[in-house]
């Protein structure tokens, strides 16, 4: 039998002195309580903020907000309603004006025909032998005037009236013993209105007063000179 060789080096025994101990835990200094890094996380954790109050949770604030919104909606509705009413009135007025004055061009072109017919009737009065024909044409002229009148056409015959530059057009001024100065002494051509709007002024002659006024005034001026 072989003899066991003597051990020159002793085998390390578990737990013997001089062995490297296991690494100590990081929190060994704290007594070993808790997991590693738990204290650090507790220190760095942000503090819980106080809960903010939701305005909807306040009945008074919610009611005030609803009332404010309702007032704004009411103002918008009233403004839109007023704008629409103004638009409706404007459109109705423009429509009525378009209806009233749609025949303006036609009437303006037809008026010379009526003037010539009136001149012809005045000339026919000097021929008694054509009295029947004159009466027939006079009836036609009256029918034409009636048709125009139903369309809003109105004659302007300012004989003897004050001269109005807005409705009359003066072609001359002549002395007249029967018509006061500044009044219309003679109507050369009648004027016409269409639904109250002047479409043609009356052509007139304006009286300068009695015939004796002009020489007297000129003589007095000569004496003063």
Notes on the structure:
With 225 residues, the chain is α+β, with helices and mostly antiparallel strands. Helices cover 45% and strands 14% of the residues. The protein has helices at 38-44, 59-100, 104-124, 131-150, 213-224, and strands spanning 153-156, 168-174, 184-189, 191-194, 197-200, 202-207. It has a 3-stranded antiparallel beta sheet. A 3-stranded mixed beta sheet has the order 2-6-3, with no helix packed on it. The longest helix is centred in the middle third of the chain and has 42 residues, at 59-100.
Total strand count, please?
A: 6
Distance between the termini: 186 Å
Arithmetic mean of pLDDT: 78
CATH fold group of the domain at 104-213:
Nucleotide Exchange Factor Grpe, Chain A, domain 2
CATH top level class name of the domain at 104-213: Mainly Beta
Number of helices: 5
Q: What integer value in Å does the Rg equal?
A: 57 Å
The biggest sheet amounts to: 3 strands, antiparallel
Fourth CATH level, the homologous superfamily of the domain at 104-213: Head domain of nucleotide exchange factor GrpE
Strand content: 5-15%
What is the H/E string?
HHHHEEEEEEH
Low-pLDDT windows of residues: 15-21, 23-35, 215-222
CATH level-two architecture of the domain at 104-213: Roll
Question: Helical amount among residues, as a percent range?
Answer: 40-55%
Helix-and-strand structural type: alpha+beta
Shape, please?
A: elongated
Strand order of the largest sheet: 1-4-5
